[in-house]
Amino acid sequence: MAAIYSGIYLKLKSAKTSWEDKLKLARFAWVSHQCVLPNKEQVLLDWVSHVLVSYYNKKPELEDEVVEKLWAYLDNVIHSKRLQNLLKSGKTIGLSFSIAQVINKRLSEACSQKTQQNIGTVLSCSSGILSTPSLSIVYTAKCELLVDLLSNLSKLACQQLASDDAVGSQLFSVLHLTFAQYLLIQRQQTNPNRVFGHVTSHLLQPCLLLRHLMTARSWTQADDNHVRQHLNREIRNQVETLLQAGLFQPELFSSYKEELLPEQELQEKKKGALKNLLLPVNTVQTKLGSDFCEPALHGAVVAGSVSLLYKLFLDSYCKTENHLVCFHMFSRLFGCLKLSGLQEGMREDTLSPVDWSTELLALEQLLNLVLSNDIYNIASDRIRHKEVQFGFYRKVAQMLMSHSQASVPAWFRCLKLLISLNHLILEPDLDDLVASAWIDAKVSELRTKKPQETLINTMFQTYSKLRQFPRLFDEVLTVICQPAVDELRLPVFSAGLTVKLRECLLELPPNQILDILCLFVEKCQTLIISAVEGSVDMSLKLLSVCSVLHAFLFNMRSLDDITPSPVVLRTQSLLAKMQKGIIQPLMELLQAPRREEEKSDLWLRKASDSALLLVYTWVEVDTLFGISCSKYVSPGAESAGAVTEPAAGHWGISALLPGVKEQCWDRVMKLANSFTSTSKYCLELLTLQKMKMILMQNKADLQALQHAAAFILESGRSSMSRGESEPWDGDIVAISDLTYAAAHWHLIISNLTILLPYISLKDVEYIADVLLKTLVLAKAQEDATDEEPSISIGKVSLGLMHSSFLPEMKVLHCAFMTSLIHQFTRVLSTAARDSVDLPLQQLSAGDIPWHEEILAGCRPIDLLEAPSENKLLKDEVSLSWRTLEKVAQCIVLLAKNGRPVILKESHLESFLGLLEVASLLKLDSLLPSDCTRCFLVLLSLLANTRARVSCSKPLLLKFLSTCFHLLRCLQDGRNINSVLKVFHASDVLEALMASQLTASKFFTDVLTAPVWAQYLQEIQAFLENFLQMIIERRQSVRLNLEKFMSFLESCKPDIDAAQSKGWRNGNPAAGQLLLMAFTTLCHVVTLYLQQLPEKKPHSADVLSALLEPVVLQMVRTVEQGLQRSTSNQPLPVAFIPSVTTLLKADLSHAVQGWQKEPSGFLEQPRIKLYQEFCSQILKELPCAGDNLQFLQFSLQFLTVFCSVPELYPGKETAVTVAFAIKKLLAGPAITTQVIKSMEMELTEVVVQLLGNCSDEEFYTIMRLVLQGLEMRNVWQQKAKEVLSAVTLTKLLLSCPLSGDKEKAFWFASPQIITALAMQAKEACQDQSLISTIVIPILETVAALLRQGEGVLINPHHVALAFSILLTVPLDHLKTEDYRGVFLGIHEVLFSVVQCHPKVLLKAAPSFLNSFHRLVVSVMHEGRQKGDRGNTDEFEVILRCAHLVERMYTHIAAEMEDFTVFSAFIVAQYVTELQKVTLHPAVKKHLTEGIYHILDLCIERDIKFLNTSLPAGVREVFKDLYNDYNHYHKARKHGEEKYTA
Which of 252, 267, 263 minimizes the C-alpha distance to 197? Predict the structure, then answer.
């Protein structure tokens, strides 16, 4: 046969053979062993390569289909296993260089035609060639071909990214591989000029464009996930590596230096002629300036690239002696930006808003790099370089100031960076800076406000440190007093700026602050006050000046008794000038006749705002200074004579602001009250200040306090009722018609503790109504979260609800409850046909004195009138309780009669909103009447309502669950017993269960939904607490429980009858509810019986008698359930806890021995029932891996079942249970997360199992575990078998073993640890097994070493752990796997350190190597990166760094014998540290740890390190040791000084 096929080559070469036949023959020849050709594989590769090369050289004419098939054939050959096996065996097979050229040509054509169709096969070929070393030589041997390939692939990737099509993975995978190959070749190149030429000629432009498009693309779900999450970042990192290695090699620095420093070049030329001068900067600039992409993209690409190139330049060359070169590079790269054209007279309108944003962002990044690398040294620049840098930065500053861009955040950040470099850069333009960046800047967006505030804060800090704050505010005043650019300026100080101002004022000398204040007061007196009347411009200037005075006076340091007297006198003088020179003239201006007619004038409104703001500021500051400083004398007191306390009953304006007449003040108040702005708000603040001053007197004027409180509430009533409001930023000057309501409500809620005692009950009800209305709105709008830290009405109301003050304000609490009930009634009455007889309607009656219970305790009563008053109060209180009893009876009656109110879906949604508000209340702190009211409302909603059939079932279940949840919250309160004053406990239980059983028929299709499980859980929790309360009260316990029991029994026949007709036609939801009720009753009674002391036999007999029928009912239900489950139908999940509870109840009776019959409760049929149930559980357990709830309930049952060995039938031994658990853990749906979720239940089962099994059974279980750890499992891809055995081993370690079982386990422990080591070594070869096998093995080994302290005496067995640690990979892991592996290795090491110190000393090299791997890994992962990745990933790295610090500390503290290795540990650390730049947070942890090791180093070690470390590493060590001496050693010495 061989002879027949030996002529194939001739046929392939023959022109007569058709191409279809040639391809068939070639495919056959490749796969067939019958075809004999010398060097067949090479011949076939050469043939296909030759054909393709000839075609692209235009020799044979081929159809496109044939060409594609030839490419496919080449691709199949390159990727075939046959070729790979031949290459592995050492056979030499290669490709010609021409095929690489053809591939490049094909990709180049695709680039020029802008089509990526039909290149998938070519990409696959290039991928196969590059990933096969013997074939990739066609690219690696000719670097130009690889550069060309990389350039073409980058261009193709750019085209794909720029299109709207979804991004696929093939092209980017090949690109990633090509980058990796090129970087490898690039590092091996010895000629830096050649590399530079390759990069600049072919790669620079496509790489920069590629990086820009990858960064700027809005990735979508349609894009390939691997590209989006992994390759995107990897390729960008590769681009940066390529550019750094290609453009900025150390050997090229001289060329950069000669080009950037022309005077240096001249000096060098004198010494000797230069050959082949390279102009790298000019080359790069030319490439950036040429058109290499779409014009619309060009500016953005260049702007994004200059900062990257400058960063790479600095990373390579930035040293102290090179700072001037670095600056010149900055100036040249700045020249590439369009911004630089503005300095040369380019028109501003040539830049669009988008251009401004990208250009300024690029400038910001450049300046940031200059600042962070200390490029600009002010002294050096001035002395040595004739201020060349300063001059350049001045030009940049002038350009920025002359082209103001207050809408662009980066503009503010650039100015901030220039100030940080040197404040003198912007000093000549300070007035323009203050005007354009602050006072006149129109900034409304939050993203722009923050950088603006940062800039102004930098100005504050700079001029504060320079002690030139007056100089800055002189400019501020000048700008304010200039004609306004816009009629309505924004306030001078925002809330955020006020905080920054306060920080600076606290550091400033008081005289400087007073200088600024005097300057503003003087300017206001001389220039503004006289010209305010009728002038809008002057009134706006006045308001700005007053806002500055307010900000300074409110945020400066207060006067006190240690303040120097001259400062006190200056302050008094200042306040006197304010009063006489500004406040009084303004008062006279505002109270002039005909002002009422001019209300609509803007100037009058602003003048009123200014006047009231100054009055409030003056009063508040004057009062504070008077209290805090005994040397201070109020200017008002000086002029009016010292008046310590106003005349009784007279609390007018003269008490606050002497010198202002009452008549004048009344007119001003009337005018100010008509403006819903700063004026009105300041009036409220002044009134509040008046209340505080009255309260500070010896005898408070009650009437004045009530009038003041009423005035404050009344001021904002109309604004609050209007409903139109906007959030307020907290700035008193920024209050407008729309923000006034938020400011007013904030004032009321913030000062409720002062206001509440002095307002009428009607006003309290008003506050409660507004609170409820705003809370409902706030909850509805909660999804639309507000980014700004502003004050809204809803936020204020929510803040009050979350605070601990509301429960203390009992009157308001009670009023809020009343308002909430009214709202429930309103919603319910829209659903009811006849709402007169509704329980909630009776509860909402307006004549019920609910608050009397609160007021009765605190109302003062005259002794003579005490009896009659007392009687009246008691009558009022009893009226409220009579109403509650009546409502309770009505609820129960309606529930029994079955006349529910039918609710629509809209009603359910409204109720849910109100219930959510109710959940904000501290329900456990309600008063008895309020607690009862709340209970009745919830009970009525559950028992007297029914949803329409069309309503959403999940929504209805959520409504019911929320009601039960709130009932449970009420049960936690101390006054819950008051509920049982108004009705019998059994009535509550009957009404609730009847309504839920009736409603349950709607839920048959949602029984598997999580919302049903939550609903059952809430009912069960409520029933459990309520039944416990009945038993603990010890009042009519038997009667209540018997009634409830008989009610449940009466419901049982109906449900059984329905279900006997067929499970599908019945009501399984009702069955589950009833079973849950029986279970809860059984559980509560059983638990109480177990806790009952033996001295109370009567109580025990009563409860036992009650328990028996419950148990019998449950037995019948369980038996029916088991009968239904036999026909391959799984047990319902809700069924299992019931059987567990039943078994506990039976066992409690068996243990107590209360039954005199020998069999007791555990008679034979009952034992058989439990055995059958156990068999069913064990049958279903291995198949239920995806149902966590079923698993947890089943394991809980097995825990109870296994605790009684007598229950085991003959065939169901402990081994059977262990085998079922092992099978479960080996199931396909079981993951490590599932195991963690049920770890507690698993441990409890195994503890009971091993505690009660025989020695023989234990040996069998041990054999099961060891079988699972056999190597054949992992070889046969049975990873889950191994996981099962490892988990069982860990569970065994958590059991308290004793006697022969303990001996058997530890006898097998060497075998276990050896098996674990071998399994780990094998599993580490497959990345997918890291989380499945490796991490559980590490956890198990750590537990084994901890438990084996003092037992594992052979050091070899402990040392086996190190072999595991040294094989586990720490690179290229997912974040979660990395965290698990790192923590696992750390725990194993820590177990060795703590429990086996003797072994550690003998195996010190292994320990140090294992620990060093952790250090290296955390340094690699924690290095500074341009793209930091997500926060969760970084949190994991920080946690790992903290673990390393902990280990260092432990080694230093606990292991004195390890001192000999301290120098070695430090050497390892600094060697790795020299290779990376760590993130500061990671570095902090590692540095703190290594400092503790340095504590162990003696002087000889330090000398040794200084001598033996290589040069670069030695520098790193010196820096580390200097910091250690400066920070750590000094601190340690300080601590030791005060240590006993």
Answer: 252
How many DSSP H helices and E strands does the chain contain?
A: 76, 2
3-state secondary structure of 791: strand
Question: Quick one: which H or E segment has residue 947?
Answer: strand 945-947
User: 73-99, pLDDT tens digit by residue?
Assistant: 888 888 888 888 878 887 888 888 888
Instruction: Report how far residue 89's alpha carbon sits from residue 47's, in angstroms, rounded to the nearest whole number.
Output: 23
Residue 582 has pLDDT above 80, yes or no: yes
Identify any residues that bridge with 791 across adjacent strands, giving them in sequence order.
Answer: 728
Dump pLDDT digits (tens) for 804-854: 888 888 899 999 999 999 999 999 888 877 655 678 888 887 777 777 666
Q: Residue type for 22, please?
A: K
Strands 901-903 and 945-947: parallel
pLDDT at residue 812, as a whole number: 92
Token readout for 511 is: 């005289």
How far is 578 from 618, CA to CA, in rounded Å? 8
Cβ 321 vs Cβ 313: under 8 Å: no
Q: Please identify which residue in the block is written with the tokens 């039976």.
A: 1146
Say if CB 297 and CB 212 are below 8 A apart: yes
CA angle 154, 160, 161 (to 5 degrees): 85
* pLDDT per residue as tens digits for the range 491-516: 888 888 999 999 999 999 999 999 99
Q: Say if residues 1026 and 969 touch (Cβ distance below 8 Å).
A: no
Helix (H) or strand (E) holding 239: helix 232-247
Angle between helices 793-802 and 740-750 (to 10 degrees): 20
Using CB atoms within 10 A of its CB, is residue 952 exposed (0-12), middle (13-18) or buried (19+)?
middle
Name the residue among 399, 297, 290, 438 with its Cα closest to residue 354.
297
Residues 546 and 1156: their CA atoms lie apart, in Å, by 92
- Lowest pLDDT segment from 40-54, 974-988, 1264-1278, 1417-1431: 1417-1431
d(CA 667, CA 596): 9
* Mean model confidence pLDDT for the chain: 84
C-beta of residue 419 within 8 angstroms of C-beta of residue 451:
no
- Going by C-alpha positions, the residue among 179, 187, 315 that lies closest to residue 239 is 179
Quote the DSSP letter at residue 728: B
Question: Dihedrals φ, ψ of 902, to 5°?
Answer: -90, 125
What backbone torsions phi and psi does residue 1498 show, to the nearest 5 degrees? -95, 175
* Pair 38, 88: CB distance under 8 Å: no
- Cα(407)–Cα(410) distance, rounded to whole angstroms? 9
Cβ atoms of residues 1242 and 1220 within 8 Å: no
